[in-house]
Amino acid sequence: MDFYSQERIALFIDGSNLYSSARNLGFDIDYKKLRELFSSKGQLVRAFYYTALIDDQDYSPLRPLVDWLDYNGYTLVTKSAKEFTDAEGRRRIKGNMDIELAIDVLEMAERLDHVVLFSGDGDFRRLVEAVQRRGVRVTVVSTTRTSPPMVADELRRQCDHFIELRDLEMEISRPRETAGADQDPEYTA
Questions:
Q1: CATH architecture of 8-175
Q2: pTM of the entire structure?
Q3: Hey, where are the domains in the chain?
Q4: What gap in Å lies between CA 83 and CA 60, rounded to an integer?
């Protein structure tokens, strides 16, 4: 990895995107190991985690993860997910956190040397370009080893450095639990 010990680093984790990428690669993220890995690479200023929550559920499978992250050094950014019915009458949930993530990256950029973006969303290409113009290096963590790839080609081309998520598996994965592993979306604390 292309990091310098004196640089100020911040992690910006698109929760649903990272969850989907790791799941498609067949492993679960250990967020404690993830934070420790990047803390060892430089001066970790902040680790943001973005996710939408469904408010009207009695129990959300994300709640244990969100609570754990909140107590263990992550800055949680959440909002209420919107529920709607699509044209075919299927119940859908929408909870896009792109704007929140982009604003936080731009606001933090002047206090950082290196942004690490955990997302493959091509909508972030212009954000990466804007941050780079301010002299901040950007590393994107996602995967090309799924079909289709989880990282947009334009985002991968724009960033200063791309880290293949599969290459981090041994350092940031946790053992998968056999019972109930499919029932807890994003829950990997």
A1: 3-Layer(aba) Sandwich (3.40)
A2: 0.87
A3: 8-175
A4: 14
